[in-house]
Amino acid sequence: MSLAGGLVRLFTTIAGLRCYLEQERFRPPANAVTPIAASPQFNSPRLPQSIGFVPTMGALHAGHLSLIQKARQENDRVIVSIFVNPLQFAPNEDFQQYPRTLEQDQQLCQQAGVDAIFAPTAIELYGDQASGSGTSGDRVTQVIPPAAMIAGLCGRFRPGHFQGVATVVAKLFNIVQPDRAYFGQKDAQQLAVLRRMVADLNLPIDVIGCAIVREANGLALSSRNQYLSDAARSQASVLYRSLCRAQAVLRQGKTLREDLIEGVKAELSIVPAIKPQYIELVHPDTMAPIEQLDDVGLLAIAAHIDATRLIDNTLLRNRKPILAIDGPAGAGKSTVVRQVAQQLGLLYLDTGAMYRAVTWLVLHSGIAIEDTAAIAELVSRCAIELDSELDSKDDSESVEVWINGHHITQAIRSLEVTAQVSAIAAQPAVRKELMKRQQSYGRRGGVVMDGRDIGTHVFPDAELKIFLTASVQERARRRMQDLLAQGQESVTLAELEQAISDRDYKDSTRAFAPLGKAEDAIELQTDSLSANEVTAKIVQFYQQKLADLNRVPL
Fold it and tell me: pTM of the entire structure?
């Protein structure tokens, strides 16, 4: 049974799927948590259910299922499309032979908790103009990606392919209207093109890239692996080994394109049956060629073995790792993160101060907390400045905060701001705007950030993720000490505990980027630990991560 409480639904028409989605969008899932009766302030009007979407061409495997699993974790409803798109196949490609296993795919979707499958025919999607591979492109309206993004890599050898991909995905997005869509990193050029399409067309959809899933020998999972014999499957594992070789070359301090690619070629040459089509180093967002790796690059391969074409890639990072520290309010993040940054020589970005600054601005602009449109306008135009200053008393760094020229470092810690910051931070427009700014700060690495969703949403590819937590009672005690030290009006411990519990609920149940522990995060329970002890543990984890990154398996 699906997690929505019934059998997975199969739709083959646009009308049927749209009707289903209209019915389901405001129907709570069977496993939905009812707000606690003791907190009537949470009994707001019912919000639409979030939709996660996984577009596929069927022949599902563990790679697809990993996308579905992530979509299931992050959304109320999960829709999977199964459609072998003729528009993205050239006449000499394998459109007719591409594996079609709908019955088996349905069973896998059922087991994975998918709510509905959309499996249209080409005529349903493209109308009467659809008549086979490579023949409908000049008869239907198409989405054309930027030429520079599709001139290289697969685009050079598959003319029209990415126009077909962008067109069908745009149509599917318009039909499903998901909140989030999930794609595998194996098709890295496709992922970059679709992210650019969503940005350029201002589509309100988060495109989520998910890690490559590999067989035991390192071969990236692909529906086309079904074409391979056992011997060819074993030989094809050299693709991954060649990418690991490039990682090893990078760890030797070699960052030039030719050195990295030469390492790949040397490994591939061990298996003569592999015929490389291209080996390229490009920027992962723009697909522009890179001559020297300054921070991050995508090393991508396409190769033939027998008649089967396979692709693979890896991200090469020539930077210090990103450290993401998440956890609930009052878990000690802000104290610890400053000490960690100082000891490791990392840039500290106080993301909490950014949300508090916006909250202060909203309160002082006279805008109602519920006026999300006015707040979206405000945050899109505001200028936030963060500056680290050295405290002469203890040589620690503190963060000074300005917004629109106003120095508000102390003001953002007031009880008024504290009481409202969670409500402001929960608004999707606020989070999306500040997320872009945070990602811009951290792109070059060597940064430590703390918040509620740094490891899950802001930097899901951070090399090290820590989740700090503590009991409500301990967090209330710490907050009481902070208030007394600041000379602010005191409240009772019971009131602080209730406020913290309420904030935990808001943070963990908000529709966009809720508080949560990333799957690959290390959890630290801090009730019995001092700030110095927590800092020491995190520094140790970071140093171990650096050592691990310098050991690339071959």
Answer: 0.85
